[in-house]
Amino acid sequence: MRFREPLLGGSAAMPGATLQRACRLLVAVCALHLGVTLVYYLSGRDLSRLPQLVGVSSTLRSGTIGATANKQPPGARPPPPVGVSSKPRPGPDSSPGTAFDPGLKSNWTSVLVPPTTALLTLPACPEESPLLVGPMVIDFNIAVDLELLAKKNPEIKMGGRYSPKDCISPHKVAIIIPFRNRQEHLKYWLYYLHPVLQRQQLDYGIYVINQAGDTMFNRAKLLNIGFQEALKDHDYNCFVFSDVDLIPMDDHNAYRCFSQPRHISVAMDKFGFSLPYVQYFGGVSALSKQQFLAINGFPNNYWGWGGEDDDIFNSLYGSVDKALSLASMGL
């Protein structure tokens, strides 16, 4: 259809071919505009979800606005997004000489998650653990291997370390075991003691100090070595020195330290659940770090079995308050 009347007063009618070309140009411009808008919309949508995806393997490609997935092998930990760092970013309160750069990187500080304070907000573990069960059945006829030990104690960290996950224990205990050629005893000790120590809500580590060779055994020297080695790993405030063949029959028998040195194995079945003599301090005993240092450790000059227990008792009894009774030492 042709326009026979002029479009504007005083102007000539526009030819049909020119009108068609103008319409096509307008449609092309509109399509281009919509395409560009769609691209920006799709690119910006990933960025808007970034606060919900902190720690997910999405990184900003340098020099672009869009977000791209970083290809990594399965199980690999993704790198942080550009501009996101676990280290504090320099700002107006930083040390003099450190410039503050308010560029793209600083814009990402709004999505950083502050460091977790979970450990700071955990309550202290109660003095008496509510997890204790009392008397236990000890059976040495069951088959125990390392695979079973690992399966039954999933919370144990590498190196035999454990700490309660729902409270902070004030008892940081290193358990020192003098050892040589007692593999079967050690498996049963670990099988029964790990659950006991966890129910007592102790922050503990186990150290097996092995004496190699076939020379005479020196229990006290191994205990001294264990004390020094344990302190290299953790700031322990309590040390329990235990023979590998002694297992408690009640988890109320606390493997921790008190205000005075404590003899833990006070009723042993091989002695008819009594002590061979009053001064006996062998088997299992607990000393705080200060108590151990007060007696300058254990005597190193006792080779073979026996003798060092009595010496330890005499050193402890002479170093504490004279008003201390044998009962308060667990005797």
From TrEMBL:
<dbReference type="InterPro" id="IPR029044">
    <property type="entry name" value="Nucleotide-diphossugar_trans"/>
</dbReference>
<keyword id="KW-0812">Transmembrane</keyword>
<keyword id="KW-1015">Disulfide bond</keyword>
<feature type="domain" description="Galactosyltransferase C-terminal">
    <location>
        <begin position="262"/>
        <end position="314"/>
    </location>
</feature>
<keyword id="KW-0735">Signal-anchor</keyword>
<keyword id="KW-0328">Glycosyltransferase</keyword>
<dbReference type="GO" id="GO:0006487">
    <property type="term" value="P:protein N-linked glycosylation"/>
</dbReference>
<protein>
    <recommendedName>
        <fullName>Beta-1,4-galactosyltransferase</fullName>
        <ecNumber>2.4.1.-</ecNumber>
    </recommendedName>
</protein>
<dbReference type="Pfam" id="PF13733">
    <property type="entry name" value="Glyco_transf_7N"/>
</dbReference>
<dbReference type="InterPro" id="IPR027995">
    <property type="entry name" value="Galactosyl_T_N"/>
</dbReference>
<dbReference type="GO" id="GO:0032580">
    <property type="term" value="C:Golgi cisterna membrane"/>
</dbReference>
<keyword id="KW-0325">Glycoprotein</keyword>
<comment type="function">
    <text>Responsible for the synthesis of complex-type N-linked oligosaccharides in many glycoproteins as well as the carbohydrate moieties of glycolipids.</text>
</comment>
<feature type="region of interest" description="Disordered">
    <location>
        <begin position="64"/>
        <end position="103"/>
    </location>
</feature>
<dbReference type="GO" id="GO:0003831">
    <property type="term" value="F:beta-N-acetylglucosaminylglycopeptide beta-1,4-galactosyltransferase activity"/>
</dbReference>
<dbReference type="GO" id="GO:0008092">
    <property type="term" value="F:cytoskeletal protein binding"/>
</dbReference>
<dbReference type="Pfam" id="PF02709">
    <property type="entry name" value="Glyco_transf_7C"/>
</dbReference>
<dbReference type="GO" id="GO:0046872">
    <property type="term" value="F:metal ion binding"/>
</dbReference>
<keyword id="KW-1133">Transmembrane helix</keyword>
<dbReference type="GO" id="GO:0000139">
    <property type="term" value="C:Golgi membrane"/>
</dbReference>
<dbReference type="InterPro" id="IPR003859">
    <property type="entry name" value="Galactosyl_T"/>
</dbReference>
<comment type="similarity">
    <text>Belongs to the glycosyltransferase 7 family.</text>
</comment>
<dbReference type="InterPro" id="IPR027791">
    <property type="entry name" value="Galactosyl_T_C"/>
</dbReference>
<comment type="pathway">
    <text>Protein modification; protein glycosylation.</text>
</comment>
<keyword id="KW-0808">Transferase</keyword>
<keyword id="KW-0472">Membrane</keyword>
<keyword id="KW-0333">Golgi apparatus</keyword>
<dbReference type="GO" id="GO:0003945">
    <property type="term" value="F:N-acetyllactosamine synthase activity"/>
</dbReference>
<keyword id="KW-0464">Manganese</keyword>
<dbReference type="GO" id="GO:0005975">
    <property type="term" value="P:carbohydrate metabolic process"/>
</dbReference>
<keyword id="KW-0479">Metal-binding</keyword>
<feature type="domain" description="Galactosyltransferase N-terminal">
    <location>
        <begin position="125"/>
        <end position="257"/>
    </location>
</feature>
